[in-house]
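Summary for the steering committee. The consortium agreed at its last meeting that each partner would contribute one worked example illustrating the joint modelling workflow. Our contribution is presented below. We chose a case with several input lines so that the handling of multiple components could be demonstrated. No manual editing was applied between input and output; the record is shown as generated.
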Amino acid sequence: MKSRTIKVDYLARVEGEGKLYVKIKDNAVDNVRFSVFEPPRFFEALLRGRKFTEAPDITSRICGICPVAYQMSSSQAMESVCGVTVSGPLRDLRRLIYCGEWIESHVLHIYMLHAPDFLGYEDAITMAKDHPDVVNQGLKLKKIGNDLMVLLGGREIHPVNPRVGGFYKVPTKEDLTRFVEPLQWALEASLETVRFASTLPFPEFERDYEFVSLRHPDEYPITEGRIVSNKGIDISTDQFLDTFEEIHVPHSTSLQAKVKERADYLAGPMARYCNNFDRLPKVAQKAAKEAGLSEVCTNPFKSIIVRSVETVFACHEALRIIKGYKAPDKPYIEVPPKAGVGHGCTEAPRGLLYHRYEIDDAGIIKDARIIPPTSQNQKAMEVDLRQFVQKNLDLTDEKLTWQCEQVIRNYDPCMSCSCHFLKLDIQRD
Amino acid sequence: MEEYSITVVGIGNAYRSDDGIGLYVAKQIESLALSGVRVVEGIGDGFALIDAWADSDHTFVIDCASSGAPPGTTYHFDALCESIPSNLFSGLSTHSISVNEVIELARVLERLPRGLIVYGIEGKSFSAGIDLTPEVRQGANKIIERIVVDIDSLTRHKVTGGDNA
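What follows is the complete predicted structure of the assembly.
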């Protein structure tokens, strides 16, 4: 019997701490484990007993790279409990700050974390020696996303300005107009990014995914929509827990999600793209087609191109919102507390971010549930690994290890988000 | 005559005890209101350091170190001449790159300022809270004195070029 083991004990260029393990026995994949080993962070427990208005600020601390997603999903959930809908310019501003987060997060991953994989570099620093213009372009593009978050959120990491009902303070038309020129540059730079990404060498690998994302009647989805999949799911956000379930596996501090009585699914840029290609602006559709993408992309390594196409969309959308912006009379809508259960679901850069809260008449949180995209994608990562290794057994250990790491990085996983969860099983023998 | 521009960047989390020592140093320097000195605090994204020093002639970066040395131990690096040991400073967050990494990236991209001095102060407690450990604060006070002398020397002599560190 001949066996091989591929192990990476500390994955680099991912957010947080994770490792992978693949056991190959008699030329077949025997066991695959993708483990998150960051300690649980108990956010859902510490939300209990807090005021409903505190949820956006508390949950945004789960992640330094997608705090806006937490603020938006939690605000939406609270507003839905209390029967309030945020519309007009306040809704547009939410979408705009979210565009900033998509730009910042996608560009960080494309240029600093993912591109080195394809070009054969250990990290962005070594890549910068040979490709300084590429890295400088990434830094400049990322900064525009950061600057949008600073303007609308008060600061780039863990913004403090969004709140249940809207914002504490809204920008003037002039504040936003200052972004037109940088964003026009960013739109061009993101189109170049798509072209750059399309030239990278991609391993041949396709998988029949169930793509799960939001879908909105008129927009490429960011802040709202129904939850849909290419395999028949079409539900409102309050049906999330009827359709999906989370499972605790022994090797990970992060729960794994699956479609109930079915299998793993994929959330994130590739899912959004597949389910919503027709909602992308023409400029992004054209860029995707010129980059060789069809309307559905099933090679996870090509997620770097999809992320680039979504960056084009985010820059285009930010410009559209800024051009049509008229400052609202009030920065927020009053949201008086009402007892009940509410659900929020928005598209974080890495995919669906679901929040559910139960609050009482005084607005005190009685129960909280948060399901971030990396938890949802964990199982899909393991299936990718299993299938990829099985198809590439002839590679040397060194090459296979490198590409297995890449399989994980295709997801831009955020372990810190995924292990926010509450349930901890302790087994003592 | 244009003023020599100096940037002082304090890094850390003020709510994690000694981790906030870089911010303490920055605040003390700010309170002195020295001419031509800009103080930057609260950088959460490591890449933003490159922008923080982009328009300045000389930059001081102060961060809490965590290498196992006795609390209050101070470190001084002339980043133009030497690399910062990778085990000294932790990442600005798990989502970002560390001070030594961003300096190396800027070095490769030729985006370092003309002068860049990095000070580290070994921390002791990183638990939740705003109190600084006395020996860590002592170390920081030594660094404040040294930065003030450096700033005085830089602004009085108004050295230009790459040999001013």
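Residues 72 and 135 of chain B are 5 Å apart (CA to CA). The beta strands of chain B are 6-10, 37-41, 58-65, 74-78, 115-122.
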